[in-house]
Write a structure and sequence with these properties.
The structure is a single chain. The chain is an alpha/beta fold. The protein is 32% helix and 22% strand. The protein contains 14 helices and 19 strands. Strands 1, 2, 3, 4, 5, 6, 17, 18 and 19 form a 9-stranded mixed β-sheet that branches. The protein has an 8-stranded parallel β-sheet with strand order 7-10-11-12-13-14-15-16. Helix 4 packs parallel to helix 5 and helix 8 packs parallel to helix 9. 55% of the residues are buried.
Length: 468
């Protein structure tokens, strides 16, 4: 039996802040005890390893419920593999990712899921699970949903965007929601009116508006809000829960808040890019704005306050990254002269925990809320809690020693994601990951990577733990 004791830190979970030592045995948390007690002191005597966390936070490993490793899009693929992406996640204090397997049109869900298992197997530095993207809703696919839920793939993503690629019409969305209402699954929705957006894209290009800034201008806030409203109503008709991904606009938050005020099982996620970046970045000269092209797009700066407020009031419950990096050279550049050809996606898996801690420093959220939106709620939302997302007896020993006072400057020169730029280049943040345990095994040891590809295990999930 291997025993590790973490001494002297402030244990911060979604529920508590307590000065306690943590005992880890064989990859799981065995117990917590108050500093200086006979019990805590006795642990140190029999430990194989003692970690001094004095002056630091001891927090659960982050759960990033929205990543796209090795993801084909726009004639290319995201630049992080499961190996490089999960290593970067570990550096940033994230110890579980939930990635998206993709159904190819005309093919079975099972085939897509098997493809993603093959991409990830024996390559991950931290634990991982899968959602399933439905590209082709038909009778066979609907029957497969029941089987996937039984084996731990319990959430399904559909799109009102990207006609001809991922788009589903209202009838297909309704059918998928009806099926999930019966099998306990959770429908995740990319909510933008893709049919209308395509009209605006065509008009912009015809008028010579071809630069990256116009990506944001054609994907209007109102078209995000409209699709959010519409899919909420479809979920009501189906009697199904709904989780809206990467919410970026104040108007869309208002739709979610209204639905939740009615007591509906409707949930919302936002991402660090919408909390810290804006259309000012999309408008950067010399095609630099292409670095910030993602969908939903970055919004004018005034939307940030509404997103932070939504996180405080629980109208938004989760912050994930939608990590989908494309290199500027050779990938983002595919859209020179035509913004619609810029691959959509930003790198972010390494910096979510730090950026949200900056939100604590800046007074937007409290420490426990930081852990709630980054660890506990995503774990509960996607059936991983209490195995993941907390520090409690019986939970996996996914633990981060976090230095709340350390300052760092985010830069592509020092990050570990496999991408040639940083969306937060030059930004100073307060707080930094120092040591990371994944199931009790050290993967970051005082700012040194000690992990390995293949340590990360596939983790089947239960169903959403928030349904009325």
């Amino acid at each position: 039996m291997s025993r590790t004791v973490i001494r002297g830190g402030l244990v911060v979970t979604a529920a508590d802040e307590i000065h306690a030592d943590v005992l880890v045995e064989d990859g799981r948390i065995a117990a917590l005890a108050a500093h200086g007690t006979t019990t805590a002191d006795s642990w140190a005597e029999g430990a194989d390893r003692t970690i001094d966390a004095t002056g630091k936070y001891v927090i659960p490993g982050g759960v990033d419920a929205h990543t796209h490793m090795d993801f084909p899009f726009g004639g290319t693929s995201s630049s992080d593999t499961f190996e490089t992406g999960t290593r970067a996640a570990a550096w940033g204090g994230t110890t579980t990712i939930v990635d998206f397997a993709v159904q190819t049109r005309g093919r079975a869900l099972r085939e897509g899921l098997d493809t993603w298992h093959a991409k990830a197997d024996a390559r991950c530095a931290v634990d991982y699970a899968f959602h399933m993207i439905l590209s082709d809703v038909n009778e066979h696919a609907l029957k497969e949903l029941d089987l996937l839920v039984e084996e731990g793939v319990t959430s399904f993503k559909l799109f009102t965007a990207y006609p001809g690629v991922f788009y589903s019409d209202d009838g297909q969305i309704l059918r998928a929601m009806q099926r999930s209402a019966g099998n306990g699954g959770l429908v995740m929705m990319h909510a933008e009116n893709g049919i209308a957006i395509d009209v605006l894209v065509e008009q912009a290009l015809a008028e010579g508006r071809t630069g990256p800034r116009y990506h944001g201008e054609v994907r209007r806030e109102l078209l995000e809000a409209e699709a959010t409203h519409r899919t909420i109503q479809l979920a009501r008709v189906a009697g199904a829960p709904l989780y809206v991904v990467h919410v970026s606009a104040e108007e869309a938050v208002a739709e979610l808040a209204q639905a939740r005020d009615k007591g509906l099982n409707v949930f919302g996620e936002t991402c660090p890019q919408y909390l810290f970046l804006s259309t000012d970045n999309l408008a950067e000269p010399d095609f630099e704005g292409a670095k910030y092209v993602c969908s939903t797009p970055l919004r004018p700066r005034e939307h940030q306050a509404a997103l932070w407020r939504g996180l405080r009031t629980n109208d938004l419950q989760v912050v994930s990254t939608d990590h989908c990096p494309f290199c500027f050279k050779g990938q983002k550049e595919l859209g020179r002269g035509d913004f619609s050809k810029i691959p959509n996606g930003l790198p972010g898996v390494e910096h979510r925990m730090d950026l949200l801690h900056q939100g604590v420093v800046d007074g937007h959220i409290g420490r426990r809320r930081w852990i709630e939106i980054a660890c506990a709620t995503p774990a509960r939302m996607f059936g991983l809690y209490p195995k993941k997302g907390t520090i409690a007896p019986g939970s996996d020993a996914d633990i981060v020693i976090y230095d709340p006072a350390a300052e760092q400057v985010i830069s592509a020169a020092t990050h570990h994601m496999n991408v040639d730029y940083s969306a937060y280049e030059g930004r100073t943040v307060t707080g930094r990951v120092e040591t990371v345990l994944s199931r009790g095994e050290t993967v970051i040891d005082r700012r040194r990577y000690t992990g390995r590809a293949g340590h990360g295990q596939y983790t089947p999930r239960g169903t959403c733990q928030y349904l009325n």
